[in-house]
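User: structure tokens for this one?
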Amino acid sequence: MTYVVAENCIRCKYTDCVEVCPVDCFREGENFLVIDPDECIDCALCVPECPAGAIFAEEDLPENQHQFLALNAELAKKWKPIVEKKAAPDDADAWLNVKDKLHLLKR
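Assistant:
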């Protein structure tokens, strides 16, 4: 099992989760974070830290979010690690409860 960053992170990209990760498994894109499934040790420390509620255990991933399992694995190979918290985008709170944001993901 691994943990997965799902759709609600898109355009929110809070990085609170990054600070608590003991193995630095987060990778950063322009408007989204992913978890490298090869690095994740399933500690679950990141889950309660995510203000967007965007991190799920693989087995708890909502049915309509299953594509994010493959997306995290794919993008983790392309994006660079992020190991320190950064300021969220200025409009992050405005995007927090917006649904159907996959088309806004910048690869």
